[in-house]
Amino acid sequence: MKHRHRSDFALRPLSRPVPGFLSARRHLSSASILALLAGGGLGSVAPAYAATKPVNDTARAQAGAPRTGVAHPKRSSHLAGKAESITVSQRRLSPAAAAARQLDTVPGGVSVINSKEVLRSRNLTNADLLAFQPGVFAQSSGGGDGLRLSIRGSGIQTGTNYFRSGILLMFDGLPVTTPAGTPYELFETLGIQYTEVLRGANAFDYGGLQLGGAINYVAPTGYTADHFQARVEAGSFNYNKQQISSGAVIGKSDYYISVTKSYRGGYQAQTAASSFGVNANYGYRFSDNVSTRLFFRYRQTQNGYPGYLTRDQIETNPKQAQALYATLHGHRIQPGSKFYGDMTTIRIDDRSKLELGFDYQDAPIDIQNTATAQRWGYKTVAGVLRYSRDDRLWGHKSETLFGIDTYTDLEAWQTNRSRTNTGIYAKIPFGTVLRHSNYGGTDNYFHIRNNFELFHNFWLTAAGALDFVQRSTEVTYPTQSSVGTSGLGFTPRGGFRYVISPHVSIYGNVSRSFQPPNDWQLLSGALYTSGPAQGLNASGVKLDNQTATTYEAGTRGEWKNNRWSVSYYYSDVRNELLSVMTPLSQLYGAATYSNASPTTHQGVEASLETDLVKWSGGKLGLRQSYTWQDFHFKHDAVFGHNALPGIPAHFYQGEIRLDLKNGLYANFNTQVSSKVSGSYDDTYYAPSYHIFNTTIGYEWPHKHRQVFLSFNNLANTHYASIVVPGYIAAGKQLSVFQPGDGFGVFAGVSAGFN
User: Fold this and answer.
1) What's the pLDDT at 84?
2) CB neighbours (10 Å) of residue 161?
3) Least enclosed by CB within 10 Å: which of 125, 272, 458, 660?
4) Which residues have a Cβ under 8 Å from the Cβ of 685 and sit 6 or more positions away?
5) Number of C-alpha atoms within 13 angstroms, CB side, residue 538?
6) 3-state class of 364 per DSSP?
7) b/e 404-423 (16+ beta carbons within 10 angstroms → b)
């Protein structure tokens, strides 16, 4: 039988001691009460709590165990000749619940996604995992991993199948984001225990200083995983996905490993996708205060690339691919990306902790989308140091964290080769080198934060970071040119959190954000106008770092069967990094990046969960998520006060849920989006849409076994799920939209054994 009395306190960085839930019922006679008041106290009970040295509090939170040490469930003593009994009952906090409690101390918009809930239906891409998260726009096209992912407008013009921009992405507190952005192929949705979403500057403790904040994916360990688990999903568009996993505790060690494989023929032409991946970690506890955990991830993927369609093409036949990419048989291969990491935690004493982390990534890419083949090589290294401690200053609680985060390119290059014998390549041998370029970059962040309880339940937050970044790009063939930039910045943050009652809090903060360009984005200079490299960028440009000042206010809590979170934010953005797609850039895969004139980002992020009806046999609930986003130019010389294209102003998700105690569950949900501008002149839009889905399933009570059946897009609505805007449409239709899936049926079964 697996022992779960100890857990891994190295699993989740930044976690301070998290109190479990402890309730005690004292049954005292009147004589006992008098004896206690007379000074007898509960001294006779204390040894029961002190007899066993508690395992580290954070370790217990990670295992889902309560904070307290092991105590006798019942103890009797005799005071003044009368009997006294004390009954202690305990309730475990799950790792996701412990993480949510910890994030409740952040004075801003945060949330935790429990994968147990996500696994009740299909898990195709991260768009499924990140659903119902206010402020998070995550849309998939063609079932591929290259999502359109944006928080508070981060990277809103970056298309699919590009490294992510504007958000720090992490595995177990270790950064996956590099100076090139974030490679997306390692983000398999299965093999995740819970996911933290920290919007905007609320990711400060992780070193997430970018406009969008951070997302942290936390994997199971041997302490929390089933000894053996298998899962199979299948359905429309020739979709199938399999997972097997195992976790166990062996003495002072534990392990978890998950292997996944998937294939999808595709709803749209030329969107076939396949993947194979491994996600593993191994932990070792040297003592109750020192532990380490090693991480390994490997994944290879291949995704067809359908290009973009016009509004009319999506309305009439969303299954077609863009003619250019159909002719070129566009596809993208990640032949095998690898992630190695380690996180070591040293609990110095009951009040302080040190975490040391390191990771190395190797992300080769082979893009066969356009008239040229692009092969990329990225090898990067990252390190983190985080020291946290709790004190009392002038009689008040004080929590301090100091961190260092550094990411560096070890090797970064791109080679373009010819892959067609038509047009300007008609007389060029297949596979001829057309251009070679190198990239480089390093990010270094030194940050400190203090939470101070000014008076009971009123906390002040003060923080600041020094930011040093470098970027470079160099073309070495067929001509030579190079561009380099560096920058030093200061990113302050201040906020407050007031816990009005145990279940309601309000918060506010003012912060700066700091976002350098991805290293490859600098290659946006002049194009070659003749020769085999015609149409490719011949040189780089200097791009300024994007900065913003953001004001945020909000509340979260629960009251009368309602649980809510609401935030309003306003960001004054300078040098926003924007991109534009033109017909020429589509042909050569060379989107243009530049800094914009001043822009404004503001919005509301709201979620509400309501228990509508509860009875002895189950409950009926309503889950809702709403995002309002207003991103626009201030006084641009060309576009005036136009809205920034690419993201809907209003996005709503709602779900009616039925959960019965016998294990049966069902839901009916909807996704509603307002129209989306497809060009900077705001004369061309993707229409608004609403789609409906439903799921029915069964979970065996007290067993890790589950089946489900899902019906997606019940009305078979034709809609654009992703918009990568063009420059000026002038009322004409541009090929800038990618369609969402039509009607589909999916089923799954999962079984775990211990």
Assistant:
1) 55
2) 20
3) 458
4) 311, 675, 676, 677, 678
5) 12
6) coil
7) ebbbbbeebbbbbbbbbeee
For residues 222 and 31, which has the higher predicted lDDT (pLDDT)?
222
| Residue pair 521/473 in contact by the 8 Å Cβ criterion | no
How many Å apart are CA 541 and CA 520, to the nearest integer? 11
User: Which candidate, 391, 389, 65, places its Cα nearest to that of 224?
Assistant: 65
In angstroms, what CA-CA distances link 78 with 25, 26, 36, 703? 17, 14, 12, 43
Displacement of CA 431 from its chain's centroid (Å): 38
Residue with tokens 């790792």: 95
Lowest-pLDDT choice from 32-36, 177-181, 747-751: 32-36
Provide the b/e sequence for 96-120 (b: ≥16 CB within 10 Å). bbbbbbbbebbbbbbbbbbbeebbb
Q: How far apart are CA 428 and CA 308, in angstroms?
A: 28
Dihedrals phi, psi of 603, to nearest 5 degrees? 180, 175
Rounded CA gap, 336 and 593, in Å?
Answer: 28
- Phi, psi at residue 84, to the nearest 5°? -130, 135
Cβ neighbours, 10 Å, residue 197: 23
User: Is there a contact between 737 and 726 (Cβ–Cβ < 8 Å)?
Assistant: no
* CB neighbour burial string for 76-93, b if at least 16 within 10 angstroms, e if fewer: ebebeeeebebebebebb
Q: Cα separation of 437 and 180, whole Å?
A: 14
pLDDT of residue 556: 97
Between the two ends of the chain, the Cα-to-Cα distance in Å is 8
Q: What does the alpha-carbon distance between residue 673 and residue 655 come to, in Å, rounded to a whole number?
A: 15
Strand order in the sheet with 21-27: 21-27, 82-91, 74-79
Structure tokens given for 81: 């000749």
- Going by C-beta distance under 8 Å and a sequence separation of 6 or more, which residues neighbour residue 639? 633, 680, 681, 682
748: Cβ–Cβ under 8 A, 6 or more apart, which residues? Answer: 121, 122, 231, 232, 233, 234, 706, 707, 708
User: Rounded CA gap, 468 and 486, in Å?
Assistant: 7
User: Which token pair is 400?
Assistant: 């301090």
216 DSSP β-pair partners: 170, 196
Q: What is the DSSP pairing of strand 213-218 with strand 168-171?
A: parallel
pLDDT for res 19: 34
- pLDDT score, position 585: 63
Q: What is the pLDDT of residue 159?
A: 60
| pLDDT of 70 over the 50 cut | no
CB atoms within 10 A of CB 37: 9
Question: What is the 3-class SS of 171-222, one letter each residue?
Answer: ECCEECCECCEECCCCCCCCCCCEEEEEEHHHHHHHCCCCCCEEEEEECCCC
| Tokens representing residue 629 in the block | 């986003």
Q: Find the length of the chain.
A: 754
Backbone angles phi, psi at 172, to 5 degrees: 50, 40
Mean pLDDT over residues 47-68, rounded? Answer: 38
